[in-house]
Here is the input.
Amino acid sequence: MKLTIKKLFAVLILSGLGITASFAQAYEKGNNLLNVGIGLGGGFGTPIGLSFEHGFSDKISGGAYVAYASKDQNLGFGSYKYTYILTAARASYHFDLDVENLDTYIGAILGYNIASAKWSGAGAGPAASAGGIIYGGHVGARYYVSEKIGVFAEAGYGLGSLNAGVAFKF
Here is the structure.
């Protein structure tokens, strides 16, 4: 009898763990999605990016993207410090691949890019700044390791050709 109660208790505990390990649909209308990550590639140093989107429907989300990167170029007799700031609106279309905890999407951005170069070293080197309208696309995926926290990876336009990091859903 004592062994049977222990077995029953163990089955109930394991069943409960199975229920809590199963998360809600990875993306749905009303979700707020936040990605915090770093970029790779693109030649701008190591960019840090942040994107936020709100789920307007079961397939469409929209929001904002901001990224910052800086890079030093030492020339031996002085150096340039390049700074890049990108701000954009973004929208994504979400696919349901019927894989638990996986959110796959494709999207577009439209925004403004600010770039500057500052000289430090011998003599008066030129400083420059520029900016302009930017547009591009992205394809990505989020995989949730819990109901609210996951990891993401995106390829496409940004300060890095590939962006990866932590995803939050609230």
